[in-house]
Amino acid sequence: MARAGLADPATIMPPFLQHAITGFIVLNVVIGLVTYVTLLERKFAARMQSRIGPYYVGWPHGWLQPIADALKLMMKEDIVPTAADRWVYNLAPIAFLVPCVLIFATIPFAPGLGVADLNIGVLFFLAVSSLEIVGLFMGGWGSNNKYALLSAMRAVNQIISYDLPFVFAALVPVVLAGSLQMSAIVEAQTGLLGWYVFYPVLGQLAFVAFLVATLAAENRVPFDILEAESELVAGFRVEYSGMKFALIQLGEYAHMIGTSFLGALLFLGGWLGPGSEQWPLLGAVWFLLKAMLVFLVVTWVRWSFVRIRVDQILAISWKLLLPATLLLLMTTALVVALQGARAV
Amino acid sequence: MPETQERQVVEIGYGGSERLVMNMGPQHPSAHGVFRAILTLEGETVVAVDAVIGYLHRCHEKLAETLTYVQYPSIASKTDYVSAMTAELAYVASVEKVGKIDVPRRAQYLRVLAAELQRIASHCLWLGTWCMDMGGALGGGATVFLYAIRERELILDLFEALTGARLLYGFHQVGGVRYDLPAGWTARCRQTVAHIEGRLAEYEAMLEDNAFFLARTQGVGVISRELALDVGVCGPIARGSGVNYDVRRAEPYSSYQDFDVAVPVQTAGDCFARYRVRMAEFRESIRLVRLVLDGLPEGAISSRPGVKSVGQVRIAKGEGYTRIEGARGEVGCYLVADGGAKPYRLKWRGASFSNLAVLPHIIPGHKVADVVAIMGSVDPVFGEVDR
């Protein structure tokens, strides 16, 4: 915080309170960001489809649309199906939301600006983000609905299959930087061509694999068999309405933004950019822009392709992506070891 | 259909060998209307399909008995509401055949024009909804849907200028057509079809170069030629399975004999083959529209113009079956006339009714995701199925 130019909170409050306040601020910023990212996606998709998107609410650009949606969801009736497993059904949105928001705890938005810059930051992120599958399956099971159950089964299949390539692709920058700590990975990417996406061959392949695995881990088209509206009518979310549905939506988009931030951090240099040394807050702005870039690439893919079938998805994961990312990781490790051996 | 009899209802379970009975529809985003498919699943694989129809039954055949020959053509369009011009044509053609009523040449050409433009519009809707079924209402499918609907709107604008209505026209009447082309319509029509032709190339490039699309459609829902002939499917579905048959060529009606209708045929029988047949039909219809506009004769647009009373058309005793090639296949009317102003009996033969019959044969063995891909490629319209 000292480098951010603000007074060092350690002198004026106990560390627990400092972390709590930072966490609270980050949580609120994340929720606000997630809400407006939905508007960004809707506008982007609309322009791809030769139309305008949200327009009237908050005329002329639909700026108040996310607020209107949030208000609507809060005012909706909370329906619990009679035959649903009440505890599981009610807890599922929370069990889904918490890991999706918790991943933001380890992301440093600027040097010194973050909730907790753990020295195992990437590991924490990847592990916690995999926990969302529990909430998802609880939602599908607790709804007592065949569509939800089918979707939950597909979810378990897909997310487990794609978490492995996701982890391996994310580990390539970790191996290149030599540290799991997120700020250390960013510091290792100084210089315009130091970004890991520009690292010859390995960086580009890892970035592409990361994007594909992100699409699958986020249930985005072409891997959105989970919610496949045209087959399963909203999948595991089908029985949720009102605030619970809002929590699930929030969790999904928060997870999406979180992995976009991770991608920007690992591959696009995080907060590095012109002027980020003098003004760390400008670095945070660069970081946000890069994360939005990753998000928009994923959104672009989402609105361009039809989805593929579950058996094709699993085939791609186990037969193509997993061996490829494993090979990539081993090659990266070999390259780094050889470079280290040469340096010695 | 022995497969649909062995359906065991068990409680929800996933053990691989236990069967789950899942109801798809009638309210479902991909039911293409109101269609109930009771699927028996083993995991993700469909082992049996029980198709239930009748949710859109509106008693068309009884309505035809209570409405006169002047009143009913506007209602006939509601059977195949996506392809309304061909539906109306089926009815008035059958009345004219039974009553031996002449139709002037200009009216015949205008009917061909309307039918072919309608075929293009109907196929635009098919492409959009099929891709939306496969790609999701929030995803790439919606993109294709919005592009295809944008093209369909151009044709609906043409129809609105011609008849005053966008979806259900009332364009045909016994003896000819009701409206003549307004000023400037021909030029606008040529512009529209040229524009659509260019867009078609875009859609083909967008879809056929896409590995995901090919993975979802090639080898999926194969209808063999024997099955197609046994079950009696018609239209693009039959032509996608190698059955080289088109009513416009086999039994030309309404001056189709003046145009050499090229009939696209594919032999693979899968969803991709049916897609290719319909894309070729797009181009063929555009060619026919241009031919009609080039050779449109002058003359009367109806041999019985004007409506002075609803009972003015009386058909002498007789009966007969007339069929036309709608966008989905063979649409026919069997009319029994008794000398009055209303038919004694009208039987609609809906193309989609026969086409849907093939679903319980080809869906078992595929995954749940393929059900919507196959249904979309069969392209049923439930007004035709349930009448």
Q: Could you describe the 3D structure shown?
A:
The complex is a heterodimer of chains A (344) and B (387). Chain A has 344 residues and is mainly α. Chain A has one domain. Helices cover 65% and strands 0% of the residues of chain A. Chain A contains twelve helices and no strands. Chain A is globular and about 65 Å long. Chain B is α+β, with helices and mostly antiparallel strands and 387 residues long. Chain B folds into two domains: 51 residues, no CATH class; 327 residues, Cytochrome-c3 Hydrogenase, chain B (Orthogonal Bundle). Helices cover 47% and strands 12% of the residues of chain B. Chain B is built from 15 helices and eight strands. In chain B, the strands form three sheets. A three-stranded antiparallel β-sheet of chain B has the order 1-2-3. In chain B, helix 3 runs antiparallel to helix 4, helix 6 packs antiparallel against helix 11 and helix 11 runs parallel beside helix 14. The N terminus of chain B is likely disordered.
